[in-house]
Design brief:
It contains five helices and no strands. It has helices at about 5-15, 20-35, 40-55, 70-85, 95-149.
Length: about 150
């Protein structure tokens, strides 16, 4: 049985949001549903390593502590690099599975970055419009006070 992309995507979302207990439960579900192949073993090792690296968050040598995960271009470049390792005939199945997990993680992160930037722009637009409405109401109150004085 192939790895469910819904489970993996959920795992990545939990990992990004630093919900480690839930991410580890999701990782266990992924492990139970995997066939025992070298590719799956590499994929799972990458997922497991992501949890450990994200939890520690203080290792300067860990990949997860370096990139800006909100920059879509950076994520796209990392994904291309990982995908080139997946497609390389020089790597064995374990390595291709490992790099495939990282390529999938970059894909999900880029989608999350797009959604986050859209949400941030919506929030900023709402804040601007709310501030404008507040300013208008403030002007009315001030003008009302001036008229009475």
């Amino acid at each position: 049985m192939p790895i469910s992309s819904a489970l993996v995507t959920r795992f990545f979302q939990l990992l990004v949001n630093r919900h480690f207990a839930e991410a580890e439960r999701e990782l266990e579900r992924i492990k139970q549903k995997m066939h025992k192949t070298e590719w799956n073993r590499g994929y799972f090792r990458a997922l497991y390593g992501m949890v450990i690296a994200r939890k520690s968050n203080n290792d300067d040598y860990a990949f997860l502590s370096k990139p800006d995960f909100n920059d879509k271009n950076v994520l796209r470049n990392y994904r291309k690099e990982f995908q080139s390792h997946v497609n390389s005939k020089l790597h064995g199945d374990f390595d291709r599975g490992f790099f495939s997990a990282w390529a999938n993680f970059m894909r999900v992160l880029s989608k999350l970055a797009v959604n986050n930037s859209e949400a941030k722009s919506e929030i900023s637009e709402k804040t601007k419009s709310n501030n404008f409405e507040k300013d208008k109401s403030q002007a009315k109150i001030e003008s009302f006070l001036r008229v009475k004085a």
